[in-house]
Amino acid sequence: MFFPDIHASFKFSALVFCGEDRSIQRTHCAFYLHDVSELALPERVLTLSAEDFRVVNPNTGGAPVFRTRRDAEITTAIYRRQPVLVLHHSPSGKGAGGEGEKPRKIWPVHYATMFHMTNDSKLFKRRDELERAGWYPVAGNRWRKGKAHAVPLYVGRMIHIFDHRSASVEVNADNLHNAALSGLLDATLKAKPDAYPEPQYWVSESNIPEKVIAPWAVGFRDIARATDARTMIAAVIPTVAAGNTLPILLPDEGAERGYRHNVPLLLANLCSMALDFVTRQKAQSTHINWYIAEQLPMVRPDQFEGNIGKKRISDFVRGEVLRLSYTAHDLEPFARDLGYDGPPFKWDDDDRRHRLARLDALFFHLYGISRDDAAYILDTFPIVREEDEKAFGRYLTKDLVLAYMNAVAAGDLTSAVRS
Fold it and tell me: What pTM did the predictor assign?
């Protein structure tokens, strides 16, 4: 032990440099070590080149951090096959496409945080404040007063994977340090398409900048804690009113139609376990900052235009994202933009489990990840495993994903495997 008086949860790094007389082509790295003896374990010591640094963090050039050699091999292989979401620098360092050019984007979206929970608090209204001011609740979890509308202010804790109704915000007035808690909505409530999570606040639509006001958007959680089952958690939300813990991805100027058409593909990619595996290794704190998100490797858009069996991949993914997301009336605009005129799809845990597993299998395939590596990646989700073993007596998610990988490899995107 180097520092016996320091708590074990504190991290430190040891760097060894050489002088100008020596040239080092590759560096030896090891991370998350608890004892010097671990340096003797081959699977814990990595050898990384300057090219590895550039491939994994092309915008910042930061050092990649991996727990094991296999993590590094899988991750760097993914980055060599797939582009990052936003590229600011070319290999020559002269910009994405040359000096002075704009960043190169895989999808025409940009990052935005709409409302800061502290600086903008004067704009927020609680339920009791709305009632006293003469507002009244209307459909879609909104409030109305004359021609004015107030929409729910979404925050990160309210969403989960393809789920904008994961939790209400419950306020504990006795805890000043963490007054807002999550009140999970169960499957029985979610089966009702008019059941909505209760936000802590609503905000008037008039306070949303006119140039960005929209009936729905894709957002992801900024907070990524070690105690969460997943790291990248994204969903469609029925408003662009979101706090800073829920950054949203908005269409670039002139790309609104393309956004509606392509953002389901982007959302499915963000929600995949393959990307989550990479994200977990990039998020070293409890936040997924934009500089982290824009350096994530995304499936190339042209891959979605291929076929598996008789199914065009893009059409299949859009259909699954629609089924998983449109479970309540407040996302009707999203469904209509995808060309669906029917009612919301009823929440069904077992059906969702299979659809999610099939999408995960598909994205492992699109990322070029082998079945053995997919099995290894799935084993790096201990909380998912624990929850499955508690509920089903086995790691059902892993069994389903691997079974669906066999189906995808056989060109079958329609059959349901037996669970």
Answer: 0.90
3-class secondary-structure state, position 153: coil
Rounded Cα gap, residues 388 and 384, in angstroms: 6
Domain that residue 31 falls in: 26-81
Predicted local distance difference test score (pLDDT) of residue 146: 95
Residues 151 and 284 both lie in one domain: yes
Using CB atoms within 10 A of its CB, is residue 247 exposed (0-12), middle (13-18) or buried (19+)? buried
Collect the ranges in the chain with pLDDT lower than 50: 92, 94-97
Residue 6 domain-assigned (yes or no): no
What is the per-residue pLDDT across 192-215, written as a single tens digit (0 to 9) for each? 999 999 999 999 999 998 888 899
According to the model, what pLDDT value does residue 26 have? 74
The angle subtended at Cα 403 by Cα 397 and Cα 405, nearest 5°, is: 100
Alpha helices in 37-193 (DSSP H): 50-56, 69-81, 127-132, 187-190
Tell whether 253 and 357 lie within a shared domain: no
CB 274 within 8 A of CB 363: yes
Q: How far apart are CA 406 and CA 400, in angstroms?
A: 10
Cβ(102)–Cβ(96) below 8 Å = yes
Domain end, chosen from 42, 62, 81, is at 81
> Beta-carbon neighbour count of residue 413 at 10 Å?
23
Residues 376 and 365 in one domain: yes
Where do we find the tokens 């958007």?
217
- What would the DSSP string read from start to end of 266-332? HHHHHT-HHHHHHHHHH--SSB--HHHHTTSB---GGGGGSEETTEEHHHHHHHHHHHHH--SGGGH
**Count of beta carbons in the 10 Å neighbourhood of residue 26:** 12
Q: What is the pLDDT of residue 348?
A: 97
Q: How far is CA 393 from the centre of its chain?
A: 28
Give residue 114's pLDDT.
Answer: 94
- 329-333, Cβ contacts within 8 angstroms, sequence gap of 24 or more: 329/139, 329/140, 329/193, 329/194, 330/140, 330/141, 330/164, 330/196, 330/238, 331/164, 331/216, 331/236, 331/238, 333/215, 333/216, 333/238
The DSSP code for 44 is G
CB–CB of 172/179 below 8 Å? yes
Q: How many domains does the chain have?
A: 3
